[in-house]
């Protein structure tokens, strides 16, 4: 309600810019917080029950102090900062955001196109804002620049990102409930690029314990020897990545003859590919 009301207010008070959607959106982003505070305060002066308690606290803004965490559980998923990920066998810092974006051909273009876009990145910091009656977790993320940092493979249907190509530095924060978790693995054929895999749902219990999960994806490697000839030498650091108490399942690919089915405990950083 307040969102659309403020945009309508901007159009009414700036008639010359009323049809310039980009200008309206920019002004909305800049002025909404102060307008929202004054609007709610005005309503409360006339009627103390005019708005809900949540709206009252939102209009006041969060407390000045905040809590910062290296891990946070949201809707059954366990998220970590990248710094904590680097010390763990479980990768939990990758995120994907689907956002409605306004696109224009140039800075002076008044004809905008609104569409959904996917943004990929990883969590750098986790903040928890305290709005007196409730807490709001935010992720400060390093986002990949979409134009040169993301590409799609039409043959495999895979999405690849270059995590070193940073972008959107002025829009680093996102609400924790607005992202989905993804997993990045190094592309064996393209140096510097990572393949994006969606995360299966996790059940967070205590600490960092996660239920076993199964990932099923098409193989993205070619030329491996048959399974009966495939040998893998385990190193000291590999034991925690591999399950030995379950039987593998082979799923046939209708087109190319093989699928990859990976069993993992908590989604480790190293995935082994088993091809039939």
Instruction: Describe the main β-sheet briefly.
Output: 10 strands, antiparallel
Helix content: 10-25%
User: How many distinct folded domains?
Assistant: 3
Range of strand content: 25-35%
Reading the helices and strands in chain order gives HHHEEEHEEEHEEEEEEEE
- Report the radius of gyration as a whole number of Å: 24 Å
Mean pLDDT across the residues is: 77
Task: Please count the helical segments.
Answer: 5
Class derived from helix and strand content: alpha+beta
Overall spatial form = flat
Spatial gap, N to C terminus: 56 Å
Strand tally: 14
Which residues form runs of ≥5 with pLDDT under 50? 205-244, 246-276
Which properties best describe this structure?
single chain, 276 residues, alpha+beta, 3 domains, 10-stranded antiparallel sheet, two-stranded antiparallel ribbon, DUF4216 domain-containing protein, DUF4216
Overview of this protein structure:
This protein is of the alpha+beta class. It has three domains: 1-61, no CATH class; 62-209, no CATH class; 212-276, no CATH class. The protein contains five helices and 14 strands. The protein has helices spanning 2-13, 21-46, 53-60, 82-85, 146-149, and strands at 66-69, 71-74, 77-80, 94-103, 113-130, 135-144, 150-153, 158-161, 166-167, 173-175, 179-186, 194-198, 213-217, 260-264. Strands 1, 4, 5, 6, 7, 8, 9, 10, 11 and 12 form a ten-stranded antiparallel β-sheet that branches. A two-stranded antiparallel ribbon has the order 2-3. A two-stranded antiparallel sheet has the order 13-14. Helix 2 (21-46) crosses helix 3 (53-60). 14% of the residues are buried. Mean pLDDT is 77; it is low at 205-244 and 246-276.
